[in-house]
Amino acid sequence: GESVGLHLPTLSVQEGDNSIINCAYSNSASDYFIWYKQESGKGPQFIIDIRSNMDKRQGQRVTVLLNKTVKHLSLQIAATQPGDSAVYFCAETYNQGGKLIFGQGTELSVKP
Amino acid sequence: DAMVIQNPRYQVTQFGKPVTLSCSQTLNHNVMYWYQQKSSQAPKLLFHYYDKDFNNEADTPDNFQSRRPNTSFCFLDIRSPGLGDAAMYLCATEASDSNQPQHFGDGTRLSIL
């Protein structure tokens, strides 16, 4: 079978609360950043992206913040719902396209 | 509608018995990727095709091979699966001339007996 898995960082929130998931990226030359949501038994699903010439981008109920000074990315989910429960991965790439470098992932658990 | 389709969703094979996983896409993307994802870990890139050009990652074992007979299909061949190869295998596609991120399939869960 598989090797013993690591334990992902876990964030547990109450339904209706806001969630903030953080990610430290590795390459100061990275210029495109993506957040993916992965539900159990499924592939990563695109949520939102941001390019390095921006520091904030908003989608529906989600906001991504980029701090290039400290190489930090965050995903904010407003009014978190049980359907938001999943593992969230940040990913970075240079010159958009090509190899994605994934962060370790955070498991979001939403309590009803 | 699924645009990156992986078959089968679950695959069981015996130790050492070759296995092939398939990926097809309806997006007409020119780049296709194969990732390995183990439990509670991020996807790990194995290799990718940029059009017909194969690009292997330096740390991908020789046991893993890939074929891309046309734009729509890409296969992952594991020649002699070991217990450590049990994982989720994800296919992703991308259009290199677009500003869109990689689009993933739902993966094939491979178990080794």
How are the elements arranged and paired?
The complex is a heterodimer of chains A (about 110) and B (about 110).
Chain A: E1 10-14, E2 19-24, E3 32-38, E4 45-51, E5 56-58, E6 62-67, E7 72-77, E8 86-93, E9 101-102, E10 106-111
Parallel strand pairs in A: 1-10
Antiparallel strand pairs in A: 2-7, 3-4, 3-8, 5-6, 6-7, 8-9, 8-10
Chain B: E1 4-7, E2 10-13, E3 19-25, E4 31-37, E5 44-50, E6 53-56, E7 64-67, E8 73-78, E9 87-94, E10 103-104, E11 108-112
Parallel strand pairs in B: 2-11
Antiparallel strand pairs in B: 1-3, 3-8, 4-5, 4-9, 5-6, 7-8, 9-10, 9-11
What can you tell me about this protein's structure?
The complex is a heterodimer of chains A (112) and B (113). Chain A is mainly beta and 112 residues long. In chain A, 0% of the residues lie in helices and 50% in strands. Chain A has no helices and ten strands. In chain A, strands 1, 3, 4, 8, 9 and 10 form a six-stranded mixed beta sheet that branches. The termini of chain A are far apart. The model of chain A is unreliable at 1-5 (pLDDT under 50). Chain B has no helices and eleven strands. In chain B, strands 2, 4, 5, 6, 9, 10 and 11 form a seven-stranded mixed beta sheet that branches. In chain B, strands 1-3-8-7 form a four-stranded antiparallel beta sheet, with no helix packed on it. The termini of chain B are far apart. In chain B, 35% of the residues are buried. The A-B interface holds A 1-3, 5-8, 34, 36, 41-46, 49, 89, 96-97, 99-100, 102-105 and B 4, 6, 31, 38-43, 45, 48, 83-84, 86-87, 90, 92, 94, 96, 99, 101-107, 109, 111-112.
